[in-house]
Amino acid sequence: MRARQFGLIAACLVLAADQISKHMILQGVDIPGTVDIYGPVTPDVRVTSFLDIALHWNHGISYSLFTANSALGRLALLAMAVGACLALGIWLMRVRRPLLATGLGLIIGGALGNAYDRSIYGAVADFLALHIPNTGFLGNYVFNLADAGIVAGVAILLYESFLGEDKAA
Protein backbone atom coordinates (compact mmCIF):
# COMPACT_ATOMS: atom_id res chain seq x y z
CA MET A 1 0.00 0.00 0.00
CA ARG A 2 1.34 3.44 -0.88
CA ALA A 3 2.07 5.84 1.96
CA ARG A 4 -0.55 8.37 0.85
CA GLN A 5 -3.24 5.70 1.14
CA PHE A 6 -2.49 5.47 4.88
CA GLY A 7 -3.05 9.21 5.09
CA LEU A 8 -6.28 9.15 3.12
CA ILE A 9 -7.64 6.29 5.24
CA ALA A 10 -6.66 8.13 8.44
CA ALA A 11 -8.35 11.32 7.20
CA CYS A 12 -11.55 9.48 6.33
CA LEU A 13 -11.62 7.61 9.66
CA VAL A 14 -11.13 10.74 11.75
CA LEU A 15 -13.68 12.70 9.73
CA ALA A 16 -16.26 9.90 9.99
CA ALA A 17 -15.69 9.26 13.71
CA ASP A 18 -15.86 12.98 14.44
CA GLN A 19 -19.07 13.61 12.52
CA ILE A 20 -20.80 10.46 13.82
CA SER A 21 -19.92 11.34 17.43
CA LYS A 22 -21.08 14.94 16.99
CA HIS A 23 -24.32 13.76 15.39
CA MET A 24 -24.91 11.46 18.36
CA ILE A 25 -24.29 14.31 20.78
CA LEU A 26 -26.36 16.87 18.89
CA GLN A 27 -29.22 14.59 17.85
CA GLY A 28 -29.16 11.30 19.68
CA VAL A 29 -27.95 11.69 23.25
CA ASP A 30 -30.16 13.57 25.66
CA ILE A 31 -27.85 15.94 27.49
CA PRO A 32 -29.66 17.78 30.29
CA GLY A 33 -29.72 21.54 30.08
CA THR A 34 -30.26 24.05 27.33
CA VAL A 35 -28.37 23.75 24.06
CA ASP A 36 -27.26 27.24 23.12
CA ILE A 37 -24.85 27.89 20.27
CA TYR A 38 -23.56 30.93 22.17
CA GLY A 39 -22.83 29.21 25.46
CA PRO A 40 -22.26 25.90 27.23
CA VAL A 41 -24.83 23.26 28.03
CA THR A 42 -25.25 22.72 31.75
CA PRO A 43 -25.18 20.56 33.70
CA ASP A 44 -22.54 18.21 32.36
CA VAL A 45 -22.98 14.44 32.14
CA ARG A 46 -20.32 12.76 34.29
CA VAL A 47 -18.53 9.88 32.52
CA THR A 48 -15.53 9.41 34.80
CA SER A 49 -13.91 11.40 37.59
CA PHE A 50 -11.92 13.32 34.94
CA LEU A 51 -14.20 13.32 31.86
CA ASP A 52 -17.67 14.73 31.27
CA ILE A 53 -19.86 15.09 28.23
CA ALA A 54 -20.65 18.79 27.97
CA LEU A 55 -21.58 20.51 24.73
CA HIS A 56 -19.72 23.77 24.16
CA TRP A 57 -19.77 25.78 20.95
CA ASN A 58 -16.31 27.05 20.03
CA HIS A 59 -16.46 30.17 17.85
CA GLY A 60 -12.68 30.35 17.50
CA ILE A 61 -9.82 27.90 17.16
CA SER A 62 -8.10 25.94 19.95
CA TYR A 63 -8.89 27.26 23.42
CA SER A 64 -11.35 29.69 21.73
CA LEU A 65 -8.51 31.82 20.38
CA PHE A 66 -9.44 34.18 17.53
CA THR A 67 -13.14 34.03 18.39
CA ALA A 68 -15.19 34.88 15.31
CA ASN A 69 -18.74 35.99 16.02
CA SER A 70 -19.31 37.70 12.66
CA ALA A 71 -20.02 36.04 9.33
CA LEU A 72 -16.79 37.47 7.92
CA GLY A 73 -14.77 36.11 10.84
CA ARG A 74 -16.31 32.64 10.47
CA LEU A 75 -15.61 32.73 6.73
CA ALA A 76 -11.99 33.68 7.41
CA LEU A 77 -11.53 30.76 9.84
CA LEU A 78 -13.20 28.41 7.36
CA ALA A 79 -10.95 29.65 4.54
CA MET A 80 -7.86 29.12 6.72
CA ALA A 81 -8.93 25.55 7.48
CA VAL A 82 -9.57 24.76 3.83
CA GLY A 83 -6.25 26.34 2.85
CA ALA A 84 -4.41 24.31 5.49
CA CYS A 85 -6.10 21.12 4.29
CA LEU A 86 -5.08 21.85 0.70
CA ALA A 87 -1.46 22.51 1.71
CA LEU A 88 -1.35 19.37 3.88
CA GLY A 89 -2.99 17.40 1.06
CA ILE A 90 -0.25 18.46 -1.36
CA TRP A 91 2.34 17.41 1.22
CA LEU A 92 0.51 14.10 1.70
CA MET A 93 0.65 13.31 -2.02
CA ARG A 94 4.46 13.65 -1.92
CA VAL A 95 5.12 11.63 1.24
CA ARG A 96 6.75 8.20 1.07
CA ARG A 97 6.69 7.16 4.72
CA PRO A 98 3.41 5.60 5.98
CA LEU A 99 3.68 7.01 9.52
CA LEU A 100 4.20 10.55 8.26
CA ALA A 101 1.29 10.12 5.83
CA THR A 102 -0.89 8.87 8.67
CA GLY A 103 -0.06 11.92 10.78
CA LEU A 104 -0.93 14.24 7.91
CA GLY A 105 -4.17 12.36 7.33
CA LEU A 106 -5.17 12.67 10.99
CA ILE A 107 -4.67 16.43 10.85
CA ILE A 108 -6.56 16.75 7.55
CA GLY A 109 -9.50 14.67 8.80
CA GLY A 110 -9.72 16.66 12.02
CA ALA A 111 -9.51 20.00 10.24
CA LEU A 112 -12.22 18.95 7.78
CA GLY A 113 -14.48 17.79 10.63
CA ASN A 114 -14.20 21.12 12.42
CA ALA A 115 -14.53 23.06 9.15
CA TYR A 116 -17.76 21.21 8.41
CA ASP A 117 -19.15 22.25 11.80
CA ARG A 118 -18.16 25.84 11.24
CA SER A 119 -19.80 25.87 7.81
CA ILE A 120 -23.08 24.31 9.05
CA TYR A 121 -23.45 25.70 12.59
CA GLY A 122 -21.19 28.75 12.56
CA ALA A 123 -19.14 27.22 15.40
CA VAL A 124 -17.41 23.96 16.26
CA ALA A 125 -19.18 21.49 18.56
CA ASP A 126 -16.87 20.40 21.39
CA PHE A 127 -18.28 17.90 23.85
CA LEU A 128 -15.57 15.98 25.71
CA ALA A 129 -14.75 17.95 28.85
CA LEU A 130 -11.47 16.85 30.40
CA HIS A 131 -10.88 18.14 33.90
CA ILE A 132 -7.79 17.13 35.76
CA PRO A 133 -7.26 19.26 38.88
CA ASN A 134 -3.90 20.99 39.41
CA THR A 135 -2.72 20.41 35.84
CA GLY A 136 -2.87 23.95 34.47
CA PHE A 137 -4.35 24.13 31.00
CA LEU A 138 -5.85 20.61 31.22
CA GLY A 139 -7.79 21.65 34.26
CA ASN A 140 -10.77 22.46 32.05
CA TYR A 141 -10.29 21.40 28.43
CA VAL A 142 -13.25 20.74 26.10
CA PHE A 143 -12.58 19.06 22.75
CA ASN A 144 -13.98 16.69 20.14
CA LEU A 145 -12.66 13.74 18.12
CA ALA A 146 -11.46 16.04 15.33
CA ASP A 147 -9.30 17.87 17.86
CA ALA A 148 -7.96 14.54 19.14
CA GLY A 149 -7.07 13.56 15.56
CA ILE A 150 -5.25 16.86 15.02
CA VAL A 151 -3.28 16.48 18.26
CA ALA A 152 -2.34 12.87 17.42
CA GLY A 153 -1.33 13.93 13.90
CA VAL A 154 0.87 16.74 15.21
CA ALA A 155 2.47 14.32 17.70
CA ILE A 156 3.30 11.97 14.82
CA LEU A 157 4.77 14.84 12.78
CA LEU A 158 6.94 15.85 15.74
CA TYR A 159 8.06 12.27 16.25
CA GLU A 160 8.93 11.95 12.56
CA SER A 161 10.80 15.28 12.64
CA PHE A 162 13.00 14.38 15.58
CA LEU A 163 13.11 10.58 15.79
CA GLY A 164 11.85 9.27 12.44
CA GLU A 165 13.65 6.68 10.35
CA ASP A 166 15.85 9.32 8.67
CA LYS A 167 17.14 10.30 12.13
CA ALA A 168 18.12 6.76 13.19
CA ALA A 169 21.79 6.38 14.03
User: What share of the residues does DSSP label as strand, in percent?
Assistant: 5-15%
Outline, from the CA principal axes? globular
Q: Report how far the terminal alpha carbons are from each other.
A: 27 Å
Total count of strands: 4
Number of domains: 1
- Given the helix and strand composition, which structural class is it? alpha+beta
Helical percent range?
Answer: 55-70%
The arrangement of helices and strands along the chain is HEEHHEEH
Major beta sheet, strand line-up? 1-2-3-4
Uncertain segments: none
Q: Mean pLDDT, as a whole number? A: 82
Tally of DSSP helical segments: 4
What is the CA-atom radius of gyration, in angstroms? Answer: 17 Å
Main sheet, how many strands, which sense, barrel?
4 strands, antiparallel
Describe the model.
The protein is an alpha+beta fold and 169 residues long. The protein has one domain (3-164). 55% of the residues lie in helices and 12% in strands. The protein has helices at 3-28, 71-94, 98-121, 145-163, and strands spanning 45-46, 51-58, 124-130, 141-143. A four-stranded antiparallel sheet has the order 1-2-3-4. α1 runs parallel beside α3 (98-121). The chain is globular and about 45 Å long. The protein starts with a helix and ends in a 6-residue tail after the last helix. The relative contact order is 0.19. The mean pLDDT is 82.
